[in-house]
């Protein structure tokens, strides 16, 4: 299970970095490592120490617990992702959409979410 934890932390690291629009080089600079080290963390090849995890959480503006969110369900999610053809949140299109969404003000975001929900409801009834 040790390797699964490293992979899970790496996926969470990659997701947050991409959400913020940071390159591996930029994140590496903020933590005082080379970008290759960030690559190794993201793919789970290298284990992230407690001190480095703290630095990453500071650089990515999330609590340390963020990296562990969903860990107990990771095996189930991995199996489901394999069945559905890949993890939806890992796609560039999804990350671009999320970035654009959070660049909107609060009111337009709520309106867009309501629109998306209504479109989904229409497809279920149509």
Give a structural overview.
This protein is an all-alpha fold and 126 residues long. The chain has two domains: 2-86, 434 Repressor (Amino-terminal Domain) (Orthogonal Bundle), CATH 1.10.260; 91-126. Helix content is 69%, strand content 0%. It contains seven helices and no strands. It has helices spanning 2-19, 24-31, 35-43, 50-59, 74-83, 92-103, 106-125. Helix 1 (2-19) crosses helix 3 (35-43).
Secondary structure blueprint with pairings:
Layout: H1 2-19, H2 24-31, H3 35-43, H4 50-59, H5 74-83, H6 92-103, H7 106-125
Helix pairs in contact: 1-3, 2-3
Helix content: 55-70%
Shape: elongated
Mean pLDDT level: 84
* Number of H- or I-type helical stretches: 7
Number of strands: 0
How many individual domains?
2
The CATH class of the largest domain, by name, is: Mainly Alpha
The SSE string, one letter per element, is HHHHHHH
Low-confidence stretches: none
Q: Assign the CATH superfamily of the largest domain.
A: lambda repressor-like DNA-binding domains
Structural class: mainly alpha
Largest sheet: none
Indicate the CATH topology of the largest domain.
Answer: 434 Repressor (Amino-terminal Domain)
CATH architecture tag of the largest domain: Orthogonal Bundle
Which value, in Å, is the CA radius of gyration? 17 Å
Distance between the termini: 45 Å
Classify the beta-strand content into a percent band: under 5%
């Amino acid at each position: 299970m040790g390797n699964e934890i490293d992979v899970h932390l790496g996926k969470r690291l990659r997701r947050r970095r991409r959400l913020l629009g940071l390159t591996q080089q930029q994140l590496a600079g903020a933590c005082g490592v080379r970008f290759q080290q960030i690559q190794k963390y993201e793919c789970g090849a290298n284990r992230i120490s407690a001190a480095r995890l703290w630095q990453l959480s500071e650089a990515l503006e999330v609590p340390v617990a963020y990296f562990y969110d969903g860990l107990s369900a990771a095996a189930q999610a991995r199996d489901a992702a394999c069945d559905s053809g890949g993890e939806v949140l890992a796609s560039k299109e999804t990350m671009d959409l999320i970035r654009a969404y959070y660049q909107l003000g609060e009111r337009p975001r709520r309106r867009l979410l309501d629109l998306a929900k209504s479109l989904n409801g229409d497809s279920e009834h149509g």
